[in-house]
Design brief:
mainly alpha, MetI-like fold, globular
């Protein structure tokens, strides 16, 4: 197993470099860089994309005589100073190599527009993303595993049919639409005002007791977590059900029943471990998926300042240190979690040997 882990770790480096190369190359062809953003704001355009789209004849004439749309009213030395400050006075290859050298030392630089370190920004947004990712994953497992087992045991029954219909309907409902429905019904929209509208905690959070802080935290996260989790039940429930059905039909189950073992002993003593292999081992990747791809719309609806909004705002503003820094950092985490998922398979079932499969 050691040599397999070593090979996987060595593959992390070229994979991560490939991810960065592709994304860095794409940004070289995307219009409206950070300098254009600053020029648009200083010229009163408000948004660089107005100049790019050619909203008027004047902007078209400006773009034909200058590298930056709308830069006619700014001194050339000021533009050069901006380029030097952002590093755009250097060739793309040199900028990429410098960036990767800094990233290897976990130096992700500062945001162009916030004058705050990238890691500091990420650390500031982590509580929201961890809240949505961890609680959504735990709730999905706590609900879906027992439900999937029950559906497998009563396969084809009325219970199985109705629960399948319910979770498929839940899966089909867009998360943002369900979030709006929750706000209207329970957060002071048109009916009840049971839950707060925004944030993870109340304004008087520091003055609350220990248990008061826990209740306040749970009170705030109830609706956004539910809106994030609603679509996760279907996949995990059906995966659990199908895994159990596959195992129940195998010969060792028939043999165990023939020996007189109770159905519960067969189900939880023999079937459970084999059937839950793929479900339990997938926990790290499922959590990381929800954690990194936290819904921007859910965060916006509930006024939560998480990584989803940070990534969106950085992409719109062309805040490249934030874009590439977070991409590198979370890309590295994603690759390491992939290795952790393989280790989970071995932990759940020691009979699995990845090394023997590669030979």
């Amino acid at each position: 197993m050691g040599s397999y882990i070593l090979r996987r770790l060595l593959l992390v480096i070229p994979t991560l470099i490939g991810i960065m190369v592709v994304n860095f190359t794409l940004t070289q062809f995307v219009p409206g860089g950070p300098i254009e953003q600053i020029i648009a704001q200083m010229e009163g355009g408000g948004d660089v994309f107005e100049g790019i789209s050619g909203a008027g004849a004047q902007s078209l004439e400006s773009s034909s005589t200058s590298e930056y749309a709308g830069a006619e009213g700014l001194p050339a030395d000021f533009i050069e100073q901006l380029e030097k400050e952002f590093g755009f006075d250097k060739p793309p290859l040199q900028r990429f190599l410098t960036m990767m050298g800094n990233y290897l030392m976990f130096d992700f630089g500062e945001s162009y527009f916030r004058s705050v370190g990238v890691l500091e920004l990420v650390w500031e947004k982590l509580p929201v993303s961890i809240t949505l990712g961890l609680w959504s994953t735990l709730i999905a497992y706590v609900v879906s595993i027992p439900l999937g087992i029950r559906k497998a045991v009563r396969d084809g029954s009325t219970f199985d049919t109705w629960t399948s219909g319910a979770i498929i309907v839940a899966y089909a409902i867009p998360g943002f639409l369900f979030a709006i429905l929750l706000l209207v019904l329970f957060a002071g929209g048109s009916y009840l005002q049971i839950f707060p509208l925004r944030g993870l905690t109340s304004d008087n959070f520091d003055q609350l007791s220990f248990f008061g802080k826990i209740l306040d935290y749970l009170h705030h996260i109830a609706l956004p977590v539910l809106a994030t989790t609603i679509s996760a039940f279907a996949t995990l429930t059906l995966l659990t059900k199908n895994s159990f059905l596959d195992e129940i039909k195998k010969q060792y189950v028939t043999t165990a029943k023939a020996k007189g073992l109770k159905e519960s002993s067969v189900l939880y003593g023999h079937v459970f471990r084999n059937a839950m292999l793929i479900v339990i081992a997938g926990f790290p990747s499922l959590f990381l998926g929800i954690f990194l791809t936290g819904s921007l719309i859910i965060e916006t609806i509930f006024s939560l300042d998480g990584l989803g909004r940070l990534a969106f705002e950085a992409a719109v503003a062309r805040d490249y240190p934030v874009v590439f820094g977070t991409l590198y950092f979370f890309g590295l985490i994603g690759l390491l979690v992939g290795i952790l998922s393989d280790l989970m398979y071995v932990f759940v079932d020691p009979r699995i040997d990845f090394e023997s499969r590669e030979t």
